[in-house]
Amino acid sequence: MTGDINPFIFRAYDVRGKVGLDITPEVFEQVGRAYGTLIRRNGGRSIALGMDNRLSSPALKEGFARGCLGTGLDVVDIGVNHTPLLYFATAHWGLDGGATVTGSHNPVSDNGVKMVHPGAAPLTEDEIQWLLEAIRRQDFAQGAGRRTTRDPREDYFGAIAAHVKLARPLRVAVDAGNGIAGSFAPELLRRLGCEVIELYCESDGSFPNHLPDPEMEENMRDLVARVLETRADVGIAYDGDADRMGVVDERGRRHEADLILALLARDLLTRHPGAEIVFDVKSSQILLDDIRKHGGRPVMWKTGHSHLKRKMREDKILLGGEVSGHMFFGENWYGVDDGILASCKFLELCSRSPQPVSSHFDTLPHLFSTPELKAPCADERKFEVVAELAREFKGRYETIDIDGVRILFPEGWGLVRASNTNPYLTLRFEARTERGLREMMAIVYDALRRHSFVTLPA
């Protein structure tokens, strides 16, 4: 079995791959044994275990559970859940860890498992590689754990309702993309006083309408149409496992997550003047400037939900976010990403004003920017490309190199970084003028063309 495991499924933040090819119940039993061993050797005795609604998840979850139980680890089965609910159960119940089988927003053919320590602290990249080495050595703890069931749903709903109060009712269109958020978010929003218009909220792990990924504009088109058709105050979309969210205002405009974070930061800074707000290197200059304008301290950090969560814990930061739509909450919460909580917090701040949702975004300046662009590049070559570009551009411009290279041009900035999870380079550009945007892109693309194995995006 050990020789059959593809080492590339052990990624920066989780274990993930193609079902039936790289990911099978037998592979997940081995991963469960390795994770159970890690928890046991850290002194732990019990974890929470759940899964999303993908068709392949039940068998994979059972394999993972067998592995954990075989190390003597007790498993609290929380059933079908969204990832933030797994985080909540782990931290709220004081368990020694937690895991959930989920493919998040990825294609139907994919699945994986996300694993955490006590308090829902993320595993490090080194720890995920340690799991692989434990499997290769067959170095596992031994025992016979006990399996119980417990539902954290009401605890979770109650904890959010205790901290989120809407000043006026809102008419909210919700697109869950047939992911697991549809089984939770509409009910919670109604409890908070919203009128909810459901779109693709029926649980269907084959995702027949569109992939549940609000970062991609094409996945938001049906929500835009539903908001305009029903004259909703706002549209909210979630990804497959509900740890990310996206927003459409009443005018049908989709807004990038870093601008949503800017509004959440304003709200936090009214209660915590001078607080730090952390965000990833792909974020807009608008966010940095707005945090400073409202008395906060912007902290740019590495892309990746695990990186940002560790930074928040280390520096006791109360709020963070990524362009991808992850939002992290440390104020009255556990320092984890939660798309459903983020949507509740966003609706709360919008409810305090009689003005439409669009008016909040209209207070932010407009810059010209690209979405996240992906340039396919082999895993074994992508980091050397970024290192070479960093050396080149440092000689010509001011740069930020905490994660890839963010080049500060006179007109704006451009970013080139290696994806931690897939074989491509991530690019993003932002400028004061459309012409400046094109010029920056041309400079970076010319540098990339020297690497024939990099496929430039259109």
Secondary structure blueprint with pairings:
Layout: E1 15-18, H1 25-41, E2 46-51, H2 57-69, E3 74-80, H3 83-92, E4 98-101, E5 110-116, H4 125-137, E6 147-149, H5 153-163, E7 171-175, H6 185-191, E8 195-199, H7 221-230, E9 234-238, E10 245-249, E11 254-255, H8 257-271, E12 276-280, H9 285-293, E13 297-301, H10 305-315, E14 319-321, E15 327-329, E16 336-337, H11 339-351, H12 357-362, E17 368-369, E18 373-376, H13 379-394, E19 398-400, E20 405-409, E21 412-418, E22 424-431, H14 434-448
Helix pairs in contact: 1-2, 1-4, 8-9
Report on this structure:
- The chain has helices at 25-41, 57-69, 83-92, 125-137, 153-163, 185-191, 221-230, 257-271, 285-293, 305-315, 339-351, 357-362, 379-394, 434-448; strands at 15-18, 46-51, 74-80, 98-101, 110-116, 147-149, 171-175, 195-199, 234-238, 245-249, 254-255, 276-280, 297-301, 319-321, 327-329, 336-337, 368-369, 373-376, 398-400, 405-409, 412-418, 424-431.
- The protein has 458 residues and is α/β, with parallel strands linked by helices.
- It has three domains: 2-151, 3-Layer(aba) Sandwich (Alpha-D-Glucose-1,6-Bisphosphate, Chain A, domain 3), CATH 3.40.120; 155-362, Alpha-D-Glucose-1,6-Bisphosphate, Chain A, domain 3 (3-Layer(aba) Sandwich), CATH 3.40.120; 368-448, TATA-Binding Protein (2-Layer Sandwich).
- Strands 1-5-4-2-3-6 form a six-stranded mixed β-sheet, with helices on both faces.
- Strand 2 (46-51), helix 2 and strand 3 form a beta-alpha-beta unit.
- The chain is globular and about 65 Å long.
- The mean pLDDT is 97.
